[in-house]
Amino acid sequence: MSASFASAQGAAREAAAAQHYPEGALYVVATPIGNLADITLRALHVLQMADTVACEDTRHTQSMLRAYGIDKGAAQLLAVHQHNETEAAQNVVQRLQQGQRVVYVSDAGTPGVSDPGARLVAAVQAAGLRAVPLPGASSITTALSVAGAVARSTEHGGFVFAGFLPVKNAERATVIAQQLAHEPRCVVLLEAPHRINELAQALAVLGDRPVTLARELTKQFEEVTTRPAHELTAWLDGAPQRSRGEFVVLLHPVAVASDDGASLRVLRLLVQELPLKTAVRLAAEITGASRNVLYDTALAWKRSGADDEDDEDEAGDAGD
After folding, report:
1. Which backbone phi and psi does 57 adopt, to 5 degrees?
2. pTM, whole model, 2 decimals?
């Protein structure tokens, strides 16, 4: 056993062994996203007692288990990944019906969100069997915790998980322009290092909307930065290492005027009769509301109603 985790195994048994772990159940276990020390004591205990460990990559998981001093034979490891999940799920169901405790882990983080696992759990539940969650590391919540992008006190609190956007440039641009640009809540994206620059270029249309880039989370060269969308490409180009590692990308909430405020009622009347910039300027002068917030709100209204070419010409003047 690795000296650094020898004491952890003992602590895991002492802390977690008292709980009941039923046979014939699937244990969905979160694993570290980069730092091996982020494993939970309960995860170590369940991995040790598992009859079968189902996983994305058997070689990767075997290496992780050995780092923790857990010895599993090749027959106890079962590959369950995005390409075979539906078929392999039936193998897992059969093992559960035989009374085995089966653990499922993805290569890193919490299964069934972006990584495989959802179809496996659905198959297990459809067979009338139990799935037991063991929470732990998640790149999504890790990034959110240090971005300051989720404000429950506002009308548009919470966040939306969008995951990976389409690979093709045209499809990605359409999703950003037609969906993400009008989503007032925080939007969580994931991206691979070889596509992060293309994503940054596509997000530039969001202008001054704050975006957090979180790379190499929990690892030695972890880096988290927040800057306007139009500055992302320049930041990535500033140093070669900035494009390395897996990315979590957070689009911060859009500032929108409150629907129950006098400023919004004034703005609605003005935009029906005047050019957008003029309406925003007058509404700000009349009500004292933020000009930028009023502009973003009016632009969102017009875009959701009709994508006029004039709106695009005015979009660059939001900070006037």
Report:
1. -135, 115
2. 0.79
Q: Check residue 17 and give left, alpha or beta (phi > 0: left; psi -120 to 50: alpha).
A: alpha
Report whether 136 contacts 35 (CB < 8 A).
Answer: no
Q: Are strands 52-55 and 102-105 parallel, antiparallel or unpaired?
A: parallel
Is residue 227 within 8 A of residue 211, CB to CB? The reply is yes
Q: Please tell me the distance from the alpha carbon of residue 103 to that of residue 96, in angstroms, as a whole number.
A: 10
DSSP-based three-state secondary structure for 275: coil
- AA identity, residue 76: Q
Identify whether the C-beta of residue 146 lies closer than 8 Å to the C-beta of residue 39: no
- 3-class secondary-structure state, position 37: helix
Q: Are strands 247-251 and 210-215 parallel, antiparallel or unpaired?
A: antiparallel
Residue 211 and residue 252 in contact, taking contact as beta carbons nearer than 8 Å: yes
Going by their DSSP bridges, the two strands 159-163 and 186-191 should be labelled as parallel
- Give the C-alpha separation, 57 to 77, whole Å: 9
Q: Is 20 exposed, middle or buried, given 0-12, 13-18 or 19+ CB atoms closer than 10 A?
A: exposed
CA nearest to 93, candidates 123, 69, 62: 123
Looking at 64-169, which runs of residues are DSSP E strands?
A: 77-79, 102-105, 130-134, 159-163
Going residue by residue through the chain, which has 320 residues, state the pLDDT in tens, using 9 for 90 and above. 666 898 998 999 999 999 999 999 999 999 999 999 999 999 999 999 999 999 999 999 999 999 999 999 999 999 999 999 999 999 999 999 999 999 999 999 999 999 999 999 999 999 999 999 999 999 999 999 999 998 765 566 789 999 999 999 999 999 999 899 888 899 999 999 999 999 999 999 999 899 999 999 999 999 999 999 999 999 999 999 999 999 999 999 876 555 546 788 888 899 999 998 898 889 888 887 777 778 878 877 876 664 444 444 443 444 44
> What is the identity of the amino acid at 236?
L
Is the Cβ–Cβ distance between 129 and 25 less than 8 Å?
yes
Residue among 299, 215, 292, 219 at smallest CA distance from 36:
219
